[in-house]
Model the fold of this input.
Amino acid sequence: MTIQSTARRPWYFSIPVLGWVAHDLTYGTKDNILYFLVILLTLVVLAVKTWGLVALAMIALATVPVIFATLILITLGK
Done:
């Protein structure tokens, strides 16, 4: 008789590629975050090389809600 774990995995671990990356960032070594940042920087460089400054503007536009929420949390003192 085997005992199964009752711990549930977070929902984002089930996303095909991003879940694997999230699992490695959560449970992996400390070097994984550096590899992830290098991959993101490479994707940004390739996007700008392919589509020009429009890609950089779209990336900046996508980060606006994150920065806005961060400013609200700083204002509230959290």
